[in-house]
Amino acid sequence: MMVAPAIGSAQTAEPQPSVPAPVPAAPSEAQPAPSAVPAAKPAPAKVTITPYGFILLQSFWNDGPFSAKDYPGQVLQNHDGGAFLMSARGSRFGFKVALPDDPFTGAQLSGVIEGDFKGGFANNTTTSANWYNSMFRLRLAYMTASWGDASNKFSFVIGQDWKIVAPLAPTSIAFGYDQMFTQAGNLNNRDQQIKAIYDMVSGGVGLNVSAAMLGPQDTAAITGTGTPVVGVTTADYGAGNRSRMPNFEGRLAVNMRDGKKKVAEVGVAGAVGWRRYDNVNTPNTTVDTTTKLGAVDAVFNFPFITLQGEGYVSDGMEDSYTSLLSSAVIVNSTGAGAAAHASSAVNIQSQGYWAQAILKPLDSVQIPVGYGMAQVRYHGAAAAVGTRFRNAQFHTGLLFNMTNPWKFGFEFTRTTSGYNNNQGPATANQYVLASKLDF
């Protein structure tokens, strides 16, 4: 075997005698052997629960007959007069939950559950005494599983959350549970759903793609003689449930960013649903219809002003949202008595929009100014006399922060409701003084 010569030596190094390894010192209490030190255990992952919400008091003064005294959504034609009302029903609380990452899927897990006190009244009574004892209702209850980071993230949302279509909310202190311009161009609603969301940010440009499968929400309007059609009879068995199909929604949005701040965003969205109406006298005969909706939304943030708004067109689907129509499908019938049966389902076509400018002269002051309108374009049948076919709202206010969590505002709304009769539109004004404490 060849042995390489030692570097810097002219002679081959002689083999050195082996030296036995030193005997390790016996462990002592002052200095234990390394093997005797217990390994540090990782801290167990924790579930974090964060409460949030607000206390809201509103004082309403109406100079005309609104159908609901605590929201200027519809003006009645009965000239019943105005009203004064105070309410704390909009007060809200909820919990945000952050869970340890799922070790099997690698997902970041979180959840939200939220409610307020706009769930109606005991025994459905609305006397003055029961107004102050309103019932709790569920607003949100969903979990989120996400993968990725802020620049490239995919998420599943499962539970009750806001719908994808028309995601913007007008700025207001007085109107949070009933958003401003609801029934006047602002489609909004919460629904049980399974939603997939993809967010991507590259440089100063962002992309959002979302799609959802939702539970049907609808009502039934029946015209004609007799009782030939089964409409909405229970909360879990309406015309949409009878179709045996879920509703579907999707939205695509592009946004511009300045760092983490979203400067502008424009989105387009669509929805589709199915409904089935059963004949009572001829149970094997059904009338089916497909409903559709398209919408756009946009928001632009500037240093002293924010501009935002939405618009939509609907073919029989507006009543799946909180909107102008209580029913967006008319079911026609023929015959009378035992011979009565449904003959066709006609989708009511409607459209609407809202736009708002929020002036910000100071960090603690906001002045919203906006307008919203919704109207029926085509109903395909002789709707009942007195049906509301158009609704418009003008809204403005002065909002400011007393301190960081305490907000205070004075807001004004003028609503005009048009009907399919010869009595002309009905107009009324509402003034609101509101105090909101966030926590």
Helix content: under 10%
Strand order of the largest sheet: 1-5-6-7-8-9-10-13-14-15-16-19-20-21-22-23
β-sheet strand percentage: over 45%
Termini separation comes to 82 Å
Task: Please give the domain count.
Answer: 1
Tally the beta strands. Answer: 23
Helices, by number, come to 2
Query: Main β-sheet: number of strands, strand sense, barrel status?
Result: 16 strands, antiparallel, barrel
| Shape call | globular
| Average pLDDT level | 86
CATH superfamily: Porin
**CATH topology, what is it called?**
Porin
Q: Structural class per helix/strand content?
A: mainly beta
Order of helices and strands: EEEEEEHEEEEEEHEEEEEEEEEEE
**What would you say the CATH architecture is?**
Beta Barrel
- Model regions low in confidence, pLDDT < 50 over at least 5 residues: 1-35
